Amino acid sequence: MPKNIDPRGSNQVGMRQFNERVVLQAIRLHGPIPKAEIARLTNLTAQTVQIIISRLEADGLVLKRAPLRGKIGQPSVPMALNPEGAYSIGIKIGRRSLDVLLVDFTAQVRERLTLAYEFPDPDTLFDEIRVRLKTLRQSLGPERAQLLHGIGIAAPLSLGGWQSLLGVAPEQAAKWNDIDIRARVAAMTTLPVELVKDTAAACVAELVAGRGRSVRSFLYVFIDTFIGGGLVIDSHLRPGATGNAGALGSMPLGLGGADGAPPRQVLSVASLFTLEKMYAQAGLDARAVADARAVEAPWMPVTREWMRQASPAIAMAIHSATALLELDGVIVDGSFSREMLAEVLAQIDGALHRFSWEGIARPELLAGAVGADARAIGGALLPLYANFAPDRDLFLKLDR
Question: Is it the case that residue 15 has pLDDT exceeding 90?
């Protein structure tokens, strides 16, 4: 990610407002920092930064932290984003659960409303979303509700796909074929509503609020009911023409069979629905995939067997991606516990050692910092960026 953020003109945003957004972006990316450091990072003059900070303080978007002492001269005062300065709502529609999050200006989750199911039914799901949106607005109260800037939805692009793997009836899965998710939610509110692929949204959260701030180009791997991913090149999310770039779950596992049958896809062995089935077959609670029980007895032997199959598949996808793209790193996360993430990373690392890296540079393998909320948080970040980032294409390139 660029060390400095250069202010520049924009047809959409006046110079004054643009420079305010540049300052907010510098604070968001670097944390609480003194005004002198903001001036250095943004290439704005100290006087301009002073004026901008005063305006942002008056608008309730930034606040002063305790002075930094111990250096020669006057103590410097770090400026930080005010968590209460703005809010947004992130909605994750998953194949196993719904999450509706209230997120503050610092991308911290203030409230979480969830709903678990075997598979989402559109006949009832949108009513559940409507109720939760109303609940979150009421919890904010009339004054703070005025600070809500939008709703971001994270959902799979093909909610009705792969129904045979999930054991979902075709007629139930087909209900999603002609549904415009964004339009259905937009009809519930006067707030702006945006929709993005769920794993791309998770990648956004990692890019803005996680390890992605220090890795310029990376493949993002998110292990959920189905494994998926995202692609960041030069600190920009690259979603592709239809928003489906980084779909490593669809990558093949080897060559097709002699009978002409296509090879299995990565998602067939490296997704959590496979582990759920393995737990159920062993007479264990399948819900353990989402918590620390997955790495405890009696689940751990089954988890190890799943990882024995999943890790080489993920490593193959990483190796193939690296052969096409010069990646600085691969960030792995998922909708499971941090203990489970550590085990998965260790197994993937071991599997990567078994590949030849001659001719290409092996990228660094990193643990995601955001966790299971990444998809909903990434969705919630979209309206915050639309309203407060200097240029959506600067760090969040959503091709239309």
Answer: no
Tokens of residue 245, six digits? 């770039």
Strands 236-237 and 228-233: antiparallel
Rounded to 10 degrees, what is the CA torsion of 82, 86, 92, 93?
170
Per residue in 109-131, pLDDT (tens digit) is 999 999 999 999 999 999 999 99
| pLDDT tens readout for residues 211-252 | 988 899 999 999 999 999 999 998 888 988 888 888 999 999
pLDDT digits (tens, 9 = 90+) for 300-354: 999 999 999 999 999 999 999 999 999 999 999 999 999 999 999 999 999 999 9
Pairing of strands 79-81, 62-64: antiparallel
The predicted pLDDT at position 389 comes to 83
Partners of residue 5 on adjacent β-strands? none
What is the predicted pLDDT for the residue at 72?
61
From 324, 308, 309, select the one nearest 253 (Cα to Cα).
309
Query: 3-state secondary structure string, the chain?
Result: CCCCCCCCCCCCCCHHHHHHHHHHHHHHHHCCECHHHHHHHHCCCHHHHHHHHHHHHHCCCEEECCCECCCCCCCECCEEECHHHCEEEEEEECCCEEEEEEEECCCCEEEEEEEECCCCCHHHHHHHHHHHHHHHHHHHHHHHHCCEEEEEEEECCCCCCCHHHHCCCHHHHHCCCCCCHHHHHHCCCCCCEEEEEHHHHHHHHHHHHCHHHHCCCEEEEEECCCCEEEEEECCEECCCCCCCCCCHHHCECCCCCCCCCCCCECHHHHCHHHHHHHHHHCCCCHHHHHCHHHHCCCCHHHHHHHHHHHHHHHHHHHHHHHHHCCCCEEEEEECCCHHHHHHHHHHHHHHHHCCCCCCCCCCEEEECCCCCCHHHHHHHHHHHHHHHCCCHHHHCCCCC
What span, in angstroms and rounded, lies between the C-alpha atoms of 150 and 311? Answer: 38
Question: Which residue's structure tokens are 């960026």?
Answer: 385
On whether the pTM is more than 0.85, the answer is yes
Q: How far is CA 386 from CA 116, 152, 194, 343, 368, in A?
A: 30, 11, 10, 37, 24
Name, of 164-173, 203-212, 234-243, 274-283, the range with top average pLDDT.
274-283
